[in-house]
Amino acid sequence: MKQKINSKLPKVGTTIFTTIGKMAKEHNAVNLSQGFPDFNADPTLLALVQEAISDGHNQYAPMQGLYSLREIIAEKIQSLYGHSYHPESEITITASATQGIFTAISAFVEPRDEVILFKPAYDCYEPAVELCGGIVVPIQLEGTEFKMDWQALKNAIGPRTKMLIINTPHNPTGTILSGADMLQLQAILRDTNIVVVSDEVYEHLVYDGQAHESVAKYQDLAARSILCASFGKTFHVTGWKMGYCAAPQNLMAEFRKIHQYVVFCVNHPMQHGVAQYLKTPEHYLGLHQFYQQKRDYFLSAIQNSRFKFKPCSGTYFQILDYPDITNEPDVAFAERLIKEYRLASIPISVFNLNNEDNKQLRFCFAKTEETLDKAAEILNKI
Length: 382
Hints:
CATH class of the largest domain: Alpha Beta
Largest sheet: 7 strands, mixed
CATH architecture of the largest domain: 3-Layer(aba) Sandwich
Number of helices: 15
Structural class: alpha/beta
CATH superfamily of the largest domain: Type I PLP-dependent aspartate aminotransferase-like (Major domain)
Order of helices and strands: HEHHEHEHEHEHEHEHEHHHHEHEEEH
Strand content: 5-15%
Shape: globular
CATH topology of the largest domain: Aspartate Aminotransferase, domain 2
Distance between the termini: 53 Å
Number of domains: 2
Strand order of the largest sheet: 2-8-7-6-5-3-4
């Protein structure tokens, strides 16, 4: 007799990233779908981790993370955003930002609590809320430029609202929240008990002279927020799955209650390597120039194509609009691009409320110029 299982996530299937990645491999496609670089990390960082391994840092790290790493993270946040987090009680090293986000949601969301998030949204948020018995309250960003609807946020807040999840720079759209946006958000939340989870994994990838507006820059927001960041995204080592969370002590104490039983601790030698690497601020302060050059190279290469675009303001993702090319649904068009043209991208509708289809695809430009040239040649033929 086959065992009957009641799924805790009955509506969740295989992620679009897995589906598209599998198709890209089967058809030997140029892969601009998943958000990972196809070039190696800085040899200096790799050497620092190798040194840590050789020096014997191969057993459990402290549950909260290596103190020297937490200390330099605190210094970095203070320098960039002007907010002081105590390394002992307010910063925790995580096994990726995704784990940090999951842990933050698990620490505070109870059955029937409502969690507001903005769509399109990165796909790890909603399942974590549902696993906790929470209710997702989605707000669709407006139009093809994904503007914030602040009145919709005000209308969505109710007596059961426990948490709000924000993401800037934003995946999958490449947009950013402005200083005015953050002040508006701070004012809306000021008289509430809502906890904010702020996904800031692309904090150093903001372009055209604009600034990253972290919750840490805003006193009232910082007091209610769990900031989630990623070393994998920052230093071209997504496979390391390593990040951190920063939050006021009262929030971090609850966060750590869950964290210690989810992973206990994070890769020890890599923590030593990253701690040393962060001592040179240029290793992260120059990243916006590095990736803006790649964005501009890619967009210049496809400027005569039939795809339309507005240069992204952050992340290493570029949205391309294709209404002038075909009326196909974006999922179907993305699949056809792989099968017929051998180019992989991510359709945006899968992240939207009610799978709203605005005929947009997301392309990752964290690639070598050789890869971007191959992709541009294909796009220009369509």
